[in-house]
Amino acid sequence: MSARRVLTDAILATMTPEGPPYGLIEGGAVAVTDGRIAWAGPAGDLPTAFRDAPLERLDGRLVTPGLIDCHTHLVFGGDRAREFEMRLEGASYEEVARAGGGIVSTVRATRAASDAALLASALARADRLIAGGATTVEIKSGYGLDVETELRMLRVARAVGDARALTVRATFLGAHAVPPEYRDRPDAYIDDVCLPALDAAAAEGLVDAVDGFCEGIAFSPDQIARVFGRAKALGLPVKLHAEQLSNLGGAALAARCGALSADHLEWLDADGVAAMAAAGTVAVLLPGAFYFLRETKLPPVAALREAGAPIAVATDCNPGSSPLTSLPLAMNMACTFFRLTPEEALAGVTRVAAQALGLGDRGVIAPGMRADLCVWDVAHPAELAYRIGDAPLAARWVKGAPC
Ligand code: DI6
Ligand code: FE
Sign of the CA dihedral 129, 288, 273, 252? Predict the structure, then answer.
């Protein structure tokens, strides 16, 4: 592997929070050493130490940090196209779920799928995310809901990262839904399956974070608190699907537990906003699910912004509420539906998404960061959110090498 390289004649959207919008540097260069960014700035200021390094001319193309999808359910069996039809005929997401469809139908398909089949379909989706510029992707379990299938999902998530030039962060989501065999016995499910599965997965090194679904059709704040207690005992960070379809106070619970993020948040109220801002818990917005479920209640973006809560954007790629495999399209939707600025949307899939995953080594173009970079055939960073799902990716660099 070549240790030193310089990308030059580029527009850099460094996404560093200080300085001009997007941390923009026109006529910029980035010097890379051993997979890390050694220097970034105006090309004319390139330190002499890099003047003899192999040079890559980008002809004025845009360079951003590699994109980060901080919320996906990329590993699952089957699809839910028939349910999409039912919902278009008038059934609500909750009605479909209560009728035995929804998450539980994907649980059946996931349990029945082989490891090889789960990996093949997850890789196909990962390749679409990669084509849209992703260099880091979070993947959740939560369609197994028995100990063995939860572990299998997490192993497949790790295998996705091994098979591609992609960092995968694996999240345990055993508290995603109550499986049919525990119907009306959610507490027994937490005790008999969820906590033992978490212990076993953590012992196998399969868990980077612990998530839950706090909702009327899933788990109560008390049940989630028990899962978070176990995560804490295991030394694992937590995050939460909160306030997606109703307000159970999940975001405030997450913030009290020092969660990395609370995600969805359409029903977040003023107390939840204040709790998240005070704790520095990232608000992860998932416009794909808002769109696909034809929701009308908007997350309180202005209040989050005013309170200084960090805002990230992700695909929520999953078969039921967001079959979306494009971060540029998620950015576009975050702007059109939620009124994020294109700069906030790009920060939401770079710097702030890294924060939502607890990764301090990426998400901005700055010395010491991993050299995960995207080169785009566009003249200005606003174009990434402006185009409707078109991802004009010219090149992707992972750890300092094009791939
Ligand atoms: N909220 C969601 O939007 C996804 N999971 C969750 O907790 C939906 C998952 C699905 O419908 O399969
Ligand atoms: Fe989700």
Answer: negative
Tens-digit pLDDT profile for residues 83-116: 999 899 999 988 888 787 899 999 999 999 999 9
Pocket test for ligand 1, best of 316, 317, 324 (most atoms within 8 A of CB): 316
What is the distance between the alpha carbons of residues 120 and 215, in angstroms, rounded to a whole number?
A: 31
**Are residues 325 and 279 in contact, defined by beta-carbon separation less than 8 angstroms?**
no
Residues 63 and 399: their CA atoms lie apart, in Å, by: 15
- The 10 Å Cβ neighbour count of residue 233 is 11
* Half-sphere exposure of residue 65: CA atoms within 13 angstroms, side-chain side: 29
Q: What is the pTM of this model?
A: 0.98
| Residue 14 in contact with ligand 1 by CB distance below 6 A | no
Q: Is the CB of 215 under 6 A from ligand 1?
A: no
Residue carrying structure tokens 């301090």: 360
136 vs 126: CA distance, rounded Å? 10
Give the angle subtended at the CA of 402 by the CAs of 396 and 403, to the nearest 5°: 75
What residue has token string 């209560």?
A: 98
Ligand 1 contacts CB of residue 316 (under 6 A): yes
- pLDDT tens, position by position, 259-291: 999 999 999 999 999 999 999 999 999 999 999
The Cβ of residue 151 has, within 10 Å, a number of other Cβ atoms equal to: 18
Task: Concatenate the DSSP letters of all residues of 176-207 into one string.
Answer: T---GGGTT-HHHHIIIIIHHHHHHHHHTT--
pLDDT the model gives residue 98: 79
* Exposed e or buried b per residue across 254-275, where buried means at least 16 C-beta atoms within 10 angstroms of its C-beta: bbebebbbbbbbbbbbeebbeb
Left if phi > 0, otherwise alpha if psi is -120 to 50, otherwise beta: which for 262?
Answer: beta
Length of the chain: 403
